[in-house]
Amino acid sequence: MDTIQSDGYQIFFEDSLTQLVNFIKEGKYSRSFVLTDENTAVHCLPLLQQYLAEADNFDIIEINAGEESKNLDFCIGVWKMLIDFGADRKALMINLGGGVVTDLGGFVASTYKRGIDFVQVPTTLLSQVDASVGGKTGVDLDSIKNIIGTFTQPKAVFMVADFFKTLPERQILSGLAEMLKHGLICDAAYWDKLKTSDLSLPAIELVHRSVEIKNEVVIEDPHEKGIRKALNFGHTVGHAVETYSMLNDSNPLTHGEAIAVGMVCEAWLSNKKVCLPDEQLAEIAEVFGKLYPKHSIADDCYPALFQLMQNDKKNQNGQINCTLLTSIGQYSIDNICTEQELCDSLRYYTTL
Amino acid sequence: MDTIQSDGYQIFFEDSLTQLVNFIKEGKYSRSFVLTDENTAVHCLPLLQQYLAEADNFDIIEINAGEESKNLDFCIGVWKMLIDFGADRKALMINLGGGVVTDLGGFVASTYKRGIDFVQVPTTLLSQVDASVGGKTGVDLDSIKNIIGTFTQPKAVFMVADFFKTLPERQILSGLAEMLKHGLICDAAYWDKLKTSDLSLPAIELVHRSVEIKNEVVIEDPHEKGIRKALNFGHTVGHAVETYSMLNDSNPLTHGEAIAVGMVCEAWLSNKKVCLPDEQLAEIAEVFGKLYPKHSIADDCYPALFQLMQNDKKNQNGQINCTLLTSIGQYSIDNICTEQELCDSLRYYTTL
After folding, report:
1. Among A264, A279, A272, A262, which Cα is nearest to A337's?
2. For the stretch A248-281, what's the b/e string if a residue is b when 16 or more beta carbons lie within 10 angstroms of its beta carbon?
3. Domain extents for chain A?
4. Which CATH fold would you assign to the domain B170-351?
5. Which helix (H) or strand (E) holds A327?
6. What is the pLDDT of residues B22-69, one digit of tens each?
């Protein structure tokens, strides 16, 4: 598999940890800091340490696992550890984890002493196909996802397929939702291939294709002014469902589970507003219905969900902006949706 | 006076508030937010409001005055207010204040929703000649100055000479130290002009020349890899003296007062290490001695001051790096100084 060239950095898929060691040696860094969470410290760090042992001095900084850690308190904790370790501007941060670690670690690095280099070693399927490309860093504030952050590219991304082989099924499904999205917005043939593949453990070639699609989109539009909005398909409704679930459910939805709900709702909106054919809507609903457990959304949650949609970073002038599909493999950006339409789309999902 | 073209933005010196109004109208912003502190809210905001009244809807966010506000708690407060006001990505932040407001406001804007536009309206002499150019944003953490921040350019800078006419003398002297530095590092004729001018209220033409010098330096080296280090003259010792004073003195030194001490010390180092002529060292010591009150530094502070110098962002590999002068108007970067040399330079200042 080819290395993918992104916006000023490379994404490695083969011999990635050897490549990481070479990268560190060539970079002449004063010191390396590996950011992990409790889980990756156990499941992924030992392998990384075997490789790093020959590369350089390094220190380990661990944060708690889970979205609840993705906040400014943890940033302050990591910044203070960097200060205590005497990290200078030639220090390197190696973010080893899922989206929380890569997003938070990227933000911490991009703002420590006005920016030190960082690389991403995404350990979940979701972070491999999503957080690894695009240069978005960030943390949550007041339960609003990624509201504080920067656009800063990593210096390299290293994909290690072995890391997600031990992931629980729900984590695989979470990443898979983004992969299915990549097919829906840009590549009908890839969508067809995913539909018929064994998705209990997606092949690294499929991951590679997803990264390729996302990379093409973000390279054309690094600051989300235009076509990058394609990637928001499913996310207007999906983010609201995800945040609502995080605030209210004892066992909250994963990102992918929420986005799967969002994609079905937004496929319905696509059918109503931009002529997605009926049979394609049915196909989308069927594929997600088979893969993902049904999530129940009571009518009386709609106002709260709508409120969350209004808080979305991507809105302007208080209007809610959706990316929709004109057909499978073709997106349409900047579709303004009303409260009524959005609630109807949730109703459609509920009645499936 | 000409408008100065900086790295992607303009710095206005004439009819600046009219220019600001035009800027806002042309930018089609969804809303404007004026960040002030207690002082600028009283002394500067009323004038700004007269102009803004015809431009747009705007809201005011006020923080406490003083360096103690330049921290992440205040950032969180401002971010939350932006969220509460429903600020979207097309919002504009107008930072009306001294360096604390422009640095903190720039950092908050550059990280809110991964970056909204901001403009600077610096109200002190120091922020006009220093913080207004260069794209440095940031806040302090654990008493370490500007340790968290970004390199982000404002969309424009508006200089209003009227604002600093009411500043206390110590604030004028604080800005003047940076102006004198600009002469020392790059322009001997400007240094000579400053020496012989009435400096109780520097003419706006002098401010313009200082901004021009700083602008030329930072445009060549936006990320402080090389020649921008010229601007660090006086700052290795000066920052340490400033931080130490802030932590220990009931009436701490201003930035400029501390940098004035630092410049005398580093002029002495320049004489010892890079052949700054004896008579130029004497001249520098005399000019600063006349303008600035003598600051007493006891011998037993030296270890703490040295510790602070080691924490400086600009160091690498634990070595202390100074920008020195080979003559007035000529700098020399990357001079490594030992603890002994740095302490001797403090001793020189003390014996003057």
Report:
1. A272
2. eeeebbbbbbbbbbbbbbbbbbbbbbbebeeebb
3. 4-166, 169-351
4. Dehydroquinate synthase-like, alpha domain (1.20.1090)
5. strand A320-327
6. 999 999 999 999 999 999 999 999 999 999 987 668 999 999 998 889
Q: In this prediction, what percent of chain A has a pLDDT beyond 70? A: 99
**CB pair distance less than 8 Å for A79 and B318:** no
Name B51's bridge partners. none
**pLDDT of B55:** 67
- Could you give the ipTM of this predicted complex? 0.89
Task: Identify the pLDDT of residue B299.
Answer: 92
Residue with tokens 């889970």, as numbered in its chain:
A66
Instruction: Report which residue type is found at B198.
Output: D
CA distances from A127 to A99, A112, A132, A177, B59 (A): 5, 23, 6, 12, 38
Closest CA to B69 of B20, B161, B140: B140
Of the partner residues B90, B110, B141, the one whose CB lies closest to the CB of residue A79: B141
Rounded CA separation B189/B193 (Å)? 6
Which candidate, B60, B29, B30, places its Cα nearest to that of B46? B60
Residue pair B41/B62 in contact by the 8 Å Cβ criterion: yes
In contact, A256 and A179? CB cutoff 8 Å = no
Min Cα distance B255 → chain A (Å) is 19
Residue A298's φ and ψ, nearest 5 degrees, are -75, 150
Please tell me if residue B334 touches chain A, with a CB cutoff of 8 Å.
Answer: no
CATH superfamily for domain A169-351:
Dehydroquinate synthase-like - alpha domain (1.20.1090.10)
**C-alpha dist (Å) from residue B137 to A129, B99, B102, B104:** 32, 10, 8, 6
Q: Chain B: give the shortest CA distance to residue A234, in Å.
A: 19
- Which chain A positions have a beta carbon within 8 Å of B114's beta carbon? 136-138, 146, 149-151, 313
The bridge status of strand B330-337 relative to strand B320-327 is antiparallel
Burial of B90 (0-12, 13-18, 19+ CB in 10 A): middle
Q: Is B89 in contact with A136 (Cβ distance < 8 A)?
A: no
Helix (H, G, I), strand (E, B) or coil at A4: strand
Among residues A102, A113, A108, A116, the alpha carbon closest in space to that of A31 is found at A116
Sorting pLDDT into bands at 50, 70 and 90, what band is A312?
Answer: confident
The whole-angstrom distance between A88's CA and the closest CA on chain B is 6
On whether any CB of chain B is under 8 Å from the CB of A27, the answer is no
CATH assignment, B4-164: 3.40.50.1970
CB count, 10 Å around CB of B329?
A: 17
Instruction: Name residues 137-196 of chain B within 8 A of A (Cβ).
Output: 137-138, 141-142, 144, 146-151
What pLDDT is stored for residue B8 in this prediction?
92
Neighbour-count burial for A178-187, b at 16+ CB within 10 Å, e otherwise: bbbbbbbbbb
Domain made up of A4-166: CATH architecture = 3-Layer(aba) Sandwich (3.40)
Whether residues B111 and A111 touch (CB distance < 8 A) is answered with yes
